[in-house]
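Sorry to interrupt, but I need a hand with the structure work. I would like you to pick a protein and set down its sequence and fold. Please put the record directly below this note.
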Amino acid sequence: MIWAVCSASSRGVRAVSGLSPTRSQTFSASLALVTAELVDERGAIVDQVRAKPVMVVQDARRQKEYTPLVSFGGTKHYLQDAQMRMVRGVAADTGFTWGGDVDNSLNIPRGTFGVYWYDRGPTTPEGMEQAIAEYQRKGDFESLGYLTKKELFKRTGDKKFLQRTPSFNDPRFLQTLSDIVRAAARNKARYNMDYYFVGDEGSLTSYGDAVDFDWSPGALAEFRTWLKHEYGTLPCAE
């Protein structure tokens, strides 16, 4: 007779049953270790085969089981209350998650939610001059690094260098981002993951200077609308 021995060492779960299809709701663990044993009529083990650990997930996940976690680092004290109101206003909280060995990424483009430290741009005078010369030669605004735009704004005072790339007020970018996220989530939905990984070291507003915010025409227009709604009685809101 052949028996299947299923166990999950991380939770101390162990179940023994005859080999047959089983449903995942009867076995709750992140990994299952499956062992097949050949035993004789006296119960002695004649042979044994062990499979590689397999992931076990629920048949279905409820929406309330998901809690979005946003990791903040270096937040300015004068922004903390406003940030927390916005985060909790969409039923999220602050915390930290990491993907580990499981590919639970939503494939969001690098740098979407802030300037990744290693992508911030040249840090030496020679590198800065080279980056500025390259921009003057090609005129490729989208490829400008954070530090390069900051330096160009200091030199020229041109507010176009304060426009964020990408802008969250750009409908085309938001649609592209939505398409990417939905496609990734759809392709990985069968795994019923505990959480999805959005991005590493997002620094949105962490640096706290003008270049880290968005001064694009669309963002300014919506900001003025928000000001009128919040502070409509003040003359400066007009």
Q: What stands out?
A: Helices lie at 77-89, 125-138, 146-156, 171-188, 217-231. Residues 97-237 form one domain. The chain has two domains: 2-55, 97-237. The longest helix spans residues 171-188.
